[in-house]
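Feature request, filed as a ticket because there's no other form

It would be nice if the structure record came with a short human-readable summary line next to the tokens. Right now we just get the raw output. Example of a typical job, pasted below so the devs can see what we mean:
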Amino acid sequence: MGCNGMLKRRLGVILLITLAIISVIVIYVIDLGYLLLTKPSDILWLNQVTNPLRAENSILFSFIAWFFWQFSITPVYSIRISAGLVLALLPLTTFYLLRRVSRELVSSFVGALLVILFPSYSWLICTSNYHILLGLSLTSLAFSYLLEDNINLFRRIIIISVLGFLISLSDILSALVFFTSSLILWFVLLLHQKRFSLEEAYPLFSAASLIPLAFFKIHVAKPPIMPLPMIIGMLMSVPAIIMLVRERKRYAICLWFFSSILVATLTHFSLVIIYVALPMIVLLSMLFKKCSERAVILIEEKEELNIELDLSKIVGLLLLLLLFASSIISTSEVLRGVKSEMEVYVARYGYEDLIDALEWIKKHTPEGTTILAEHPLDTWVKAYTNRPTLGNYLTKPGRDMEEFIRSYDADTVLNSNFEIRNNYLRLRDWEPVAPQRAPSFASSKGEEYLDFLYIDENHANVKYIFRGETLKPDFYSYEEKNTFWLIRNNEQVTLQHTYILRGNVVIVKRLFLGREPEAVVEYNITSVSSKIEAFSIKMWIPKDRKIGFIQVSGNKCYFMLDSGEYVVEFQGNLKSLSFGPDEVWFQNRILAVFEQINNQIFVRIAVKVLKPESITWMRNEVFSTSAKEILTRYKVGYLVVPTIVKKTYMDRFGLDDQLFKSQYENNKLTIYMVRV
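Raw output as currently delivered:
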């Protein structure tokens, strides 16, 4: 027996070391192969490691990261090290718990390995919620002491109280799960013993986990759709619970499972996928132990060795193998999706470039100044620099209408200089400052506007003769320009732009919108020094719109899209009208060509929504605004845009625009100072 006990202990140590090595390997594969631990969202923690006491939801994790930072390790690498430790801690504590519960090495190893593979934890890694992982790990560790019989009562009380408090400093919801489970366990013990004593009341000391609730907010993470492994595991947990209850042992695990469902459901139902996974895996590992013990039984009768098979237990083992296979597949799918998403962020913002830009904001902008940036860049600016931000994260309007309007206004500034809208249509326009999709038309779809048509005035060409030279410039070759509101009230709005091209060619562009689901754009082109010949304009359908029926008849173009039905009518001296893929860009567009009359070209384009749907959050009026007014209203001091956007759109917020002045630029990001 002594040799067997020593062999088991050695085997346990070997399995523990093997599990730690596997955990580290998995961490490095994730870190290096999928860029999960070096992605920009880790910057959310950089503001906290400078002062761990400022963290709202993860003080304990911040202290760990801060501890490593004291050894002259950069904040980024301190986060990577501490996150690696947390990721390794989860399977190790699960292994430790299962060893105490099942007293069996192989099932403990299987359960801990399943924790590494389970896709819900992979998702947590993707979103940098390391504090939740830490809370789950400590919860598993605390339960091992709740289930331990051979331990001094006073020591057990101290350990449970300390672990409960640490859990709450990591993740409040994990603390609620631990306290709820302990409270129900105490009731069960009280009913079982039918008497109250301090010895049986030790689970109540988990109330230490509730102390930080008075000081910190509950953090709610939103996991993805429930994966196949979760569905299989939940179904297989039922026979595991029945098995434990029937044998009247380790019912605390069942209570943990029940409490996880209860707390997750009461706070946010989708949280079930996170908080139920760990106790579910513990239950499945114990079921695995039971099935493996009874699936194949060797019986020796009359010097013959017979094999007896329990088909129900074999089916259980096969289902567990299916769980493993589906976990591996789901985890790989999660990682593949995150990889593609992170590649977009890294390509757009970089990593070191992002940190450099945030450092510049932190050092060179006044505290309290509002920074405008697209989402999710605005969240990183706020977390790292502690500056108020204005971001264009467009959520559907709900109770917090003010927040929705803020995000909508930010989106307006990032995508236009002027906006006019009513209950059915929205027009966005640039002055222009660069080749933009302007003016762009969007129609209402209940709670949001969907772009369905735009005029790229880089493809709106005026053909004329000046001093014997034939010229065909676009709108961006102007020598002078001015913009003002001709009419501006709740009934109708008219916005006018005037451009003067070389050779005294004057282009007057007007945008009209009333209360009806119809918008009008007019171009009036004249000159006293040049001979006007022709004008061509292209109206493009965005690539993300699905096209249905199309009909061109006379001066009208009727088309059906996934966003609605529309008709565009052209007036003026129209020479030709066509619809189809562009010869160069292969994108569907309407091409209209106009001829001159008396050295003048007049173009009137009416865009009408045939089956209008009223927007829910607009009043029955015509609303107009400009980027300058929005920037003034929110007291925006600086603007951050990806450098690729700047280069693509010819310095769209740079020298051509009087509202912005370039202050800082690297390979990925450009920072402008707002001049209004």
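Something like this underneath would help us a lot:
The two ends are 84 Å apart (CA to CA).
Residues 57 and 296 are 49 Å apart (CA to CA).
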